[in-house]
Each structure stands twice: as C-alpha cells, then as structure tokens.
Amino acid sequence: MAKDPICGMFVEETENSIHYSKDRIPYYFCASQCLNEFLEPEKAFKKLKMHVASSIALTIPIIILSLPHMIPEIGQAFPMGMMEYTNYILLALATPIQFWIGWRFYKGFWDGIKAKASNMDTLIAIGTTAAYLYSAIVTIVPGYFPFTAVYFETSAIIITLILVGRLLETKTKEKASDAVRKLLDLKPRTAKVIRPVFREENEEEGSKKNNNNSHSNNQSNVNFDNFKLKSITKEFKEI
Q: pLDDT tens, 142-197?
C-alpha cells in the first residue's frame, strides 16, 4: 500500500491506480485532484481559495434560510410570502455548491470506481448527493415523501467545511515548506576545513622511541653476555 503525498490516503499499488513517477520514484494518488495538486500546487491552491470563498458566500444564506425549518420560532421573523418559496431559494443556492464546487468529489468518486477502491471522496459524494436529491425531490414534487423537511444546508455545510479544512491544511504545509527552505538557505555554499597535521611529529617521536628501544635491547644483550662470560670463568677457575 502506498500513501498519497497530498491527502495521506492509502492507495493500492496497481496498474489501475493513478500514479506519477518523479526522479524514478513512483507516487500513487487516490484521485486526479490530488495528482493535479502535486503537479501544479500554486494553480490548485488558487482554485481552492476561489471555491472556498464561493462556498462560504452561498452557505451563509442557506443556513439563515434553513433556521425557520429547524427552529419554528425564528420563522416569525421572515415574511410569510418568502417562506412559501424558501425551499426553491435553497435549491437555487445549494445547486452550484453541490455540482460546481463539489465536482471535485465526484471526480474522486469516479477515480475510485476505476481503481476499484474507495476513498474519502466516495463518502462525501454519496452522503451529500443523498441529502441534496432527497431535498430536491421534496421541493419539486411536494407530497412524494411523507416528510417535508429539506436538508440542503447539510450538504452545503459538509462540502464547505471539508474545503475549508483542505485550505488550512495546504496553508500549513506551505508555511512548513517555507521554513525548511529558509533553513536550507542559511547553509553556506562553500566552506574551508582546517585540519592540524601531526604526521611528521608522530613519525619523529616513533623513530626516537624505536631507537631508544633498540638501544636498550642492545644494552641488555651486552650485559647478559658479560654475565655469562663471568659465570663461565668462575667455573673454569674452580675446575
């Protein structure tokens, strides 16, 4: 199992998996979106910021308009004529979030199907689509389901929060990369190494020690020979 360098998901190392080789090192990705971020990080970051800003701008009015459905007391603050068309307004606001901003999750879901594996995009795409389609059917065909509550805010909030999390994660990675680059820039490009040389002095000291050792050995040999001669002469005299 390989690890996606962008999102951290584990990917099976198969021929069907999305992969890319750089400097003879293979990298595996869970979706084409992660591959695009790996190849063009600046372009992907700009696109992500635009999607986050648009998603937040559309999600805020969705939350406000959904409050009367969650808290009926707040519905008194809204005009009655507006309440009749609230679901249609929510449908109009949630559609671009689901299919324009959230299109990246559908691409990841399709990539997972082709690779015969599931990823995080699979869960997001299925969950948000279920909430959106149910709410759209309740809005367009009233009475089709026994319940009249809609969940446009659920799908919108899920997509927005996930994109905000990815944006914060990308910013954190960029700051860490900049800090590492600054540390590497502090490293000097050239350096002079001064090492003391003790070879000649060591050789002279070694030769002196050898000479002294040889001299002491010769002296001990001479003393031993003299001792032997004296002992022989004593024995000869006694005889």
A: 888 888 889 999 999 999 999 999 899 888 887 877 777 677 677 777 777 787 76
**For the chain, what are the domain ranges?**
45-174
In angstroms, the Cα distances linking 87 to 69, 79, 220 are 10, 14, 116
SS (H, E, C) 61-88: HHHHHHHHHHCHHHHHHCCHHHHHCHHH
Residue count of the chain, please give it. Answer: 239
CA distances from 138 to 26, 74, 82, 147 (A): 48, 22, 18, 8
CA distance 140 to 149: 13
The closest of 100, 98, 122 to 109, measured between CA atoms, is 122
Task: Report which residue type is found at 33.
Answer: Q
pLDDT in tens, 77-92: 666 556 668 889 999 9
**What's the mean pLDDT when you consider all of the chain?**
78
What is the model's pLDDT at position 221? Answer: 52
Listed in sequence order, the residues at least 6 apart from 135 whose beta carbon sits closer than 8 Å to its beta carbon are: 87, 90, 91, 94, 150, 151, 152, 155
- Cα angle: 49, vertex 52, 53; to 5 degrees: 85
How far apart (Å, rounded) are the C-alpha atoms in residues 124 and 162? 9
